[in-house]
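Table S7 (text form). Paired inputs.
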Amino acid sequence: MVCNENQEEAVEHRWKWGIEEIAVVDQYTYLGVEIAKDCSWNAHMSKVAEKGKARAGKLHPILANRHLDTRIKLTVLKSVIVPPLEYAGEVWEGNKKVVKELEAAQMKAAKIILGCSTRTSNAAVRAELGIQSLRSGRDARKLTWQYRMCGMGEERLPRIVWEAKWANKKRGRQPTEWVKVVEDVWKGLDIDEDETLETEGLQGFKEKISVACAEREEQNLRKESKDKEGLEVYGMLKEGIGFKDYLHGPMDAGTKLKVKFRTGDIGLRERRRRHRTVDEEDDEFKCDCGFECEDRVHVVAECPLYKKEREVYVTELGKIDGTYREMFEAWNREERTVVVLGHSRLGETFLSHLWQSRKERLAIGDRFCRNNAPSSRGRVVNGLTAKACKT
């Protein structure tokens, strides 16, 4: 430890652990946190960003695997890549450059999962996968930690440190106080600080903060969509399903039926070029089964029309050799997900389009033909000839 009280001559204090002298260093790692001599968090954040990028690089073969379920890849992202990027996020606050590096590490992995361009909107990718920005996660944890300290006794060390006054200011740029950081977070969420901190129960407080962060994410999404594409609303997925992998992966006709039913979940720029505008007045989703809602959420397995279509399809599967009827007979997780329509006009046409193309997909040879190769001319099934087409 080096002391320089009179600013004239430095006085060094040497500490020992037993007989071993502790060296004086500019930076030290303790519990995974990089503690710098000048109390700056930039070194810690840079190391965290590099660690996240390294993990994303190691897992690239898994994230880019088109034959792997997107939910599995999303779980890898949330459980392996993101945690290091969020570590100790309650206490640190770095400069904008380093914060962007952290966000870039997460978005790089997310775009690999969806297989989209690196120029695709970050907000649209997060909406497609159902994830939030690292900033929202850090802000939520900062405010949660503040809520915990407000409930602590005055004798508790975190409370003492939080309320302690800073020493005399030195020359140069002053370090940012944690209290100031939290004040900026409250301003960014645009909610009343005193009223929210008076919430009874930690769970209720977390729910309020979560709602506020989600509203901010949605505002950023709407702002970006209006500025760049003139779209008012992106299709948002509730369970995180990247349809690019589903539509282009190796699937049987039964899986394509379920995917085609939910094509309203389109959210990325590359798959929304045909729908450049949205009617502001007609912002209510209505399914042909009679279900209506304003948030465009409709559970696939609960739709009577889909159940009816499913029964007919399972019956016809029994007439075709080489299909996987048993895989389609049981309700699986895909059918328990929701259909989210990003454009109201799709609600009027996607079911009718499904019915018109069902028999064509039954005759498609894109799963297997007699010689285990895709058919280019079509096959005769139940007396019908259909040309091979892409779904």
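Next pair, protein 2 of 2.
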Amino acid sequence: MFNDIKSCLCNAINSRLKCKLHNSSYFNILEQMKIVGPDSLNIVIVTAFFIGMVFTIQIVKEFLYINALSLIGSILTISFIRELSPVLTSVIIVGRIASYFTAELATMNVTEQLNALYMLEVNPLSYLVFPRVIACIIMLPCLNILSFITSLFSSSFICFTIYNIHPEIFFISSLSALCIQDIFKSLLKTVIFGCLISVISCFWGLVARGGAKGVGCSTTVSVVTSLLSVFIFDFLLSYIMFNKLGSSVKVL
């Protein structure tokens, strides 16, 4: 299966490199970027806001118990930027976008619309897969940053309203732990996740068979495979990126 997915990605890239981008291709990419980015923004922000508050409630009371007020912002910031924001954003995109991509392409496949593209001498990989891959690679890091900012402000809100921790104390602690390397690595994670999600979802859409039942089965397998890939690669990337780093927490 992974060899087939790799072959699908390579063929999409090669087919795109061999031809020029026309106005329709630019429009197609922009259309997919809108679907992945702006159309997913509301659910990403709402989810990040409430997950950030829930996570804060679980963390803050434990640090207040050991009188580590100055570490609260640092710990939450590191958790959000390294793990929670990229993974949470990717899971949302899997549920909303991967299922959409697979269902759309699978429907086109079982209704023989892909054969029509071949008859028109249009490469489906170049026309259908490549714009979706580019859209996910570009928009997922943007959603990740917005998710991180939302989680940070929701944490600050909970700290102030429930635990009476002034936002100034929270953000001073937060900024002391935030570094460019963590931001870059978080963005790199989402670029890789975006590539995985888009390629896997398009692959299962293109290999769908068996009418409406096949569309449903392909969509289910696509979502499950994408989620597993995100979790597995998250562990591998976290181990490579952060395992040998020293502590980012600075006691204020």
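The chain has a mean pLDDT of 86.
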